[in-house]
Write the structure tokens for this entry.
Amino acid sequence: MSLPDAQYHRQIIGDIWTTDEPLRNLEELCDVIGSRWAGSDSEHQAGEYLKDKLESYGLQNVRLEPVPFGAWTRGHATLELTDPVAQAFSCIALPYSPAGEVEAELLDVGNGEREDIERLGDAVRGKVVIAAAETNTANTKSTKLAHRTDKLRFAVDAGATGMIFVNQNPGLLHITGGIAAPGGGPAPIVTVGTSWEHGQTILRLAKRAEGPVRVKLSTGGTFAPDNVSYNVVGEIPGSRHPEELVLAGGHYDGHDISQAALDDGAGTIVSLEAARVLAALPPEAIGRTIRIVLFCGEEVGLFGSWAYTADHADEVERTRFMLNLDGAGRGKGGSEAVNISGRPELVPWFEELAERTHYALRITDILTPHSDHFPYAIRGIPTATLNSPDDSATLVGRGWGHTEADTVDKATLRGLQMSAMATARVLLEIAGDVEFPGEIKSREDLQEQLTELELDIALKRGNRWELVGGTA
Ligand SMILES: [Zn+2]
């Protein structure tokens, strides 16, 4: 069976297979412009670079949309065992750790999942806790793995006074990850990240000690409440339903300790490459308007997508879909997957799309809150994330992501190309299908879904529950 608009798919595939444009763009973004930490000069330069690229590819209404947020800049961080042995370990502050110092008894909370904290109960109060940054799925029966910000919240609610996150992948790599309070201010307790090797040494020394082990943490860093970053936006106008919008994009900001090449330099470049080949199609190929949105400030609290959805609240009814590209373009190609965000009614459409385009996309349907699709999902807009896990590396969780090793050498041209092809073809079909089934979800249905998934807790704490019609 061949596609009705097969010539457009052929042009997309041909355009992508015959250039090294995406890899050259990724190198420029990471090697030349740098880590793109939210609020830094590097992030602003990247915004300008991406805007110029979208313009050069022929997108229309290309613009920078300002995003006010509180920025955090890294300072010192120290981690020392003080009693019964004195030994210092290298560590980094988790972004938005408050500047301060804490000395207390150390408590190993294992994975730091809710059940771990509940099991330890009152023992957590007053302690500095040490936990796995990401729970290894091989070590738990739980299917609901907590995000670092959830683990911190469990520990804080139980009375912890400081927290150490241990990277679960070897290589002397420090783990990082934003822990801003809901709403964007500094976190409640001093929190650091350390490597697998340092973490294991600390745990061995703690086991060896007869009595309690004491630890001292200190972090610097500054918080500037009035910062501005920019979302980069550009459009390919629809020829049949220009008023209806199909959105797509990754986040171009990255973690300050790395090049942020895979998370999410790669997804940003996949967005660019898909935009390039879609804009090169004859205008009649594009049914609904495809709007590319490259987000700032994702790593520090989804600030770009929260701001976009607030600024464009009047467009919700005519936004048919949002495709998040956080995690696209990683690996060696062939592992592309679409995770729909809690919309079982869209699963058959995507399965049929995979069949129709003769491309074996893996389709799943799980609503998760920790990337830029989420602010769209809670406004009722159908969303999904296209990503491509690096299956060749047997790493826990984010793998190289959120460590110093998230560098361009881990990316491949083929991985970028294959994600870009999948993305462009999916967008072409969503924009072109007059019977695309995504509807705006009602606030009642959203409240029920979010409560069932326990995602209401963080929304209530961040004063965002009202967005789904809830009361504070
Ligand atoms: Zn990311």
Observations:
- The domain at 75-220 is CATH 3.50.30.30 (Glucose Oxidase; domain 1).
